[in-house]
Amino acid sequence: MKLIINFPCVLFLAVVICFSSCEQDDPLNTEDILYVERNGAQTAAQIFGNVSSKNFLLILHGGPGGSGITYRTGAMINRIERDYAVVYYDQRGQGMSQGHLNKENLTTEEIAKDIDALIAVIRHKYGSTSQIFLLGHSWGGYLGSYYLLDEARQENIKAWIEVDGAHDFPLMFAEQKTLYDSIANQQISRGNNTAYWEEILDKIAEIDTEDLSEEDIQYLNGEAYIAEGILLRDDVLDIPSIDLNLLKYQYIDYNILTAFSTGQYANDILTDQGLLESSLTEELHKIKIPTLLLWGSYDLVVPPALGESALENLGSEIKSLVFFERSGHSPMYYEELEYVNTLKDFLETHK
């Protein structure tokens, strides 16, 4: 989370599809890039894996301002792409996506319509029977939840996976303060970095979650990543995996300066539109498809209480919540193998 921070045929004809020259012919090990153009934006989707399976895992990255390819870890390649095709998608105005964007065409609903278009393109190219699993991390959890509130859109999706998703910002801020208090007292009792955690307690005591200032929001979110580093050094969290391919994807294959500036632009516009006051909790009952909720127990960015709230409010009869006890905001890095195995079991059950 970054706070500093049936597609109609007539519209389908307006979608421009570009296929990259690096596409491979092997359907069991495809590498493909799609650009889908609609309403002022060209959104990019990199597809890797087994397209012959007709099962596609579409990943909605965090941010706003992130990129899809950062989720392509070694375990994803070895455990998921072998049996599924994975769509590492860059949302409107983010990652490799481009376009002429403004506050009118850079909205949550426009991004949702882009997802409609991308799914239509995938089924056009790889077969109308292709099944789509949707996964959203952090801001992508909000976006995926928003997308699925529409019953017609749910019909496009086989199952939903929310990973540390920010589907309720007021609840998130309130629970951040609660979790800071809990973790700080836990760590002080263990004798871990007591001066740091005592300072945290003093700072959060001054924050009124009923009347948050911009400075409060910046602190709650920004300090969370510093706190994760402290917890990592004190062996509370697992050492996150580092994949050299991830570094290549993000810092060599991308124009990192362009990706950062457009991502910040997208973040600013969506925030100005009231994103940080938005809550979807009371509408989650509309989501009826099978759902898996995955959460880091030490996630100070989007606390585990949001996973518990989602589990309680989702309308699906098939839903479960899994905690990763040695993870922060991104269990796909902290406990990579356990995360991917849990994800794979869910996909296998519902494909």
Characteristic key phrases:
disordered N terminus; single chain; 351 residues; 2 domains; 17% strand; alpha/beta; ten-stranded mixed sheet; Rossmann fold
Nutshell version of this structure?
The protein has 13 helices and 10 strands.
Describe this entry's structure for a reader:
The chain has 351 residues and is an alpha/beta fold. The chain has two domains: 9-168 and 240-350, Rossmann fold (3-Layer(aba) Sandwich), CATH 3.40.50; 170-233. Helices cover 43% and strands 17% of the residues. The protein has 13 helices and ten strands. It has helices at residues 9-12, 74-80, 108-126, 139-148, 151-154, 169-189, 194-205, 214-233, 244-253, 256-272, 305-313, 331-334, 336-350, and strands at 16-19, 30-38, 41-49, 55-60, 85-90, 98-99, 131-137, 159-163, 291-296, 319-324. Strands 1, 2, 3, 4, 5, 6, 7, 8, 9 and 10 form a ten-stranded mixed beta sheet that branches. Strand 9 (291-296), helix 11 and strand 10 form a beta-alpha-beta unit. Helix 3 (108-126) crosses helix 4. The longest helix has 21 residues, at 169-189. The chain is globular and about 60 Å long. The protein starts with 8 loop residues before the first helix and ends with a helix. Mean pLDDT is 89; it is low at 2-22 and 246-252.
